[in-house]
Amino acid sequence: MIKAGIIGYGKMGRIRAEALKQSGRAEVTEVYDVHANASDVTFVASAEQLIQSNDIDAVFVCTPNHLICPLIISSLNARKHVFAEKPPGLNAEEVRSIRAVEVASGRVLMYGFNHRHHESIKRMKEIVDSGELGRILWMRGRYGKEVDESFFKGWRADPKLAGGGIMLDQGIHMLDLMLHLGGGFDEVHAVVSNLFWKIEGIEDNVFAILKSNESGICASLHSTMTQWRYLFSLEVFLEKGSLIINGLKTSSNAYGEEKLSIKRNASDGHFTSEEHNVFHVDTSWNSEIEHFLGCVETGSEVMYGSSTDALKLMQLMDRIYEASA
């Protein structure tokens, strides 16, 4: 049984605790949060006390963005395995510093990019990798939500604590999926705006155009918090058809049903009828935790959410912000 400690017991910390409980392979033995407001866990006095505890095998970092890097480094130095929420750091430089400590520690480090574990994404990735629809030509991703003033209460309204706005908060998931499906990108063009909320350093919209010089794949991404509705849409167009995901299964159901549409080109150049797959259950949180626990137990390589993935992602994130400056 793996003994886990959680730093940050807000929404994400509680989600991770429940997934650990359901796994049957781990138990949460200690928790640290500035607000010790739950009776179902044992709270300790500080994050450092938890990290240094002999009763902890793995530390879950579920904190505001600016704390992620130092807490990961402290945990790895204490010879603990680490699962950390996104973003992997505030920028690529932070991820590089983490990677150096990770290598020296010999411990497992995994980042929480649960979108890769949604059933629609797993099926999409399977079809892309099979080659049955040929190579990817282009992708288009839209991910957005509506927020009000309450969204900016606390750390999310402070660029020193948040590190950025909607792109670092939500758009990072879409960018990660594009890297997951299509590989890296070389050319980056972007526009960033905070036309509505007007908070310096906290963008409310990002429009990015990406291209890979090696594969020729082009991609467009729009991340927004001024859409006034919840929307997730990822479209992948290939030589022999298309794969389109609309909606994302979440606990709130705000993004609607999660549906993957598969369209295969007919030999005469016309499209055949579409195949629609609807996924009614969100298994992403449990799937992600199972992957992490398996890596801890067996010492196997992290396949989804590794520091290698994280560095590639944050390098591209940095370039998007720089291109819009």
Automatic annotation (TrEMBL):
Any one GO molecular function term: nucleotide binding
Residue intervals of the Gfo/Idh/MocA-like oxidoreductase N-terminal domain: 2-113
InterPro entries in the record: Gfo/Idh/MocA-like_OxRdtase_N (IPR000683), Gfo/Idh/MocA_Oxidoreductase (IPR052515), GFO_IDH_MocA-like_dom (IPR055170), NAD(P)-bd_dom_sf (IPR036291)
Gene3D superfamilies: Dihydrodipicolinate Reductase, domain 2 (3.30.360.10), NAD(P)-binding Rossmann-like Domain (3.40.50.720)
Residues of the GFO/IDH/MocA-like oxidoreductase domain: 122-243
Official protein name in the record: Putative dehydrogenase
Organism per entry: Aporhodopirellula rubra
